Amino acid sequence: MTQRNPSHTDWFRDARWGVFTHYLCANDLSADNWNRQVDQFDVDALAAQLVATGTSYYFITIGQNSGHFCAPNAAYDDIVGIHPSKCSRRDLISDLYDALTPRGIKLLVYLPAGAPAADPIAVERLEWEWGFEGRWPDSWNTARTGKRLASFQTKWEAIVSEWSLRWGEKIHGWWIDGCYFADEMYRHADGDAPNFASFTAALKAGNRASLVAYNPGVLVPVISHSESEDFTAGEISNAFPVCPGRWVNGAQYHILSYLGEWWGGGAPRFTDGFVRGYTEYVNSKGGVVTWDVPIGKTGVIPQTYIEQLKQLT
Description:
Number of strands: 9
Oligomer: single chain
Largest sheet: 7 strands, parallel
Shape: globular
CATH superfamily: Glycosidases
Number of domains: 1
CATH topology: TIM Barrel
Distance between the termini: 38 Å
C-alpha cells in the first residue's frame, strides 16, 4: 500500500481555496485544429487573472472524453496509434508552470481514470470497457457492473507515468475522475498490481510529494476513496455538505464544485455572499475548496467569475 504523508498537504490546507478549469474541445475537432487552439492559449493572461483573484493554486484538465490532450505523450501515441496525434505538440502544462510559478501559484492537473469515451479507437486499443451497460448509472453507490480491466490499467499507468516524469516537481497534484468501480479495478493486495498502490506510484513517478485524489462520484458526505489518496476528490453538485474537520480517514478534506450553471459553463449561480461564506466555513474547519469556472479557448476566464473569485481574498 502506498503510504501517504499528511505533511505533504500542509500547503494545500494553508492555500484554503483555488481555481479549476475544464479546458476541452469538441469531440470531432481535428488534430490540426486542436493544436491551433492549444497554441493560442495565453498563459500569461490567465496567470495575471489568477493573481488578481488571490488564488494560490490552479487545476487544469489534461484532457477528457474527446481523446485530445494538451501535452505530448509518446506512450499514449504508441498504444493508441492515431496519426496525426491527438496529443498537442505544445506542452501547455509546462508552459503554465513557467507562467504561474513566478507568481506563486501552484499547478495541479485533472485526468479521467478511463479511456476517452468519445474516441472509439482509443477505447479499443487501450482495452477499456464501460461498466454502465450502455448508460450512465442512476447512482454511483449502486453501480456495480465494472470489471478489473488489468490490461487497460497497465497501459493507463504507463501513460500517466510518462506525464508525471515529464513534469516532475512542476505538478503539485492530480485529481483523477471516474474511479467508480474501485472494488473491481483498484482494491487489490499490494502484490497484486494493478491496484490503487500502483496507480498512485505511476501518478507520483516524477514527484513523490505531489497530491492525489480519486473521485468516486458525487457523494455526500464526502468520503476518502482510498488509503492511497492524499486529499478527498469531494465532487459536489447541489448539496453542499457540513465539513467534519481537516481529515477524512487520513485524507485532507477538500471539495470541488462549480460556480456556473454546470461544469465549465453558464452564468454564475451563486451570490458572492454564499461563495464567500461557504468557503470561509470549510476553511475554518481545516478544509479546502476548489471552484470550477469557465475558460475560453485562449485561456481567459470571463470577468464576471474573476470578480466573484476576488470576494474570497
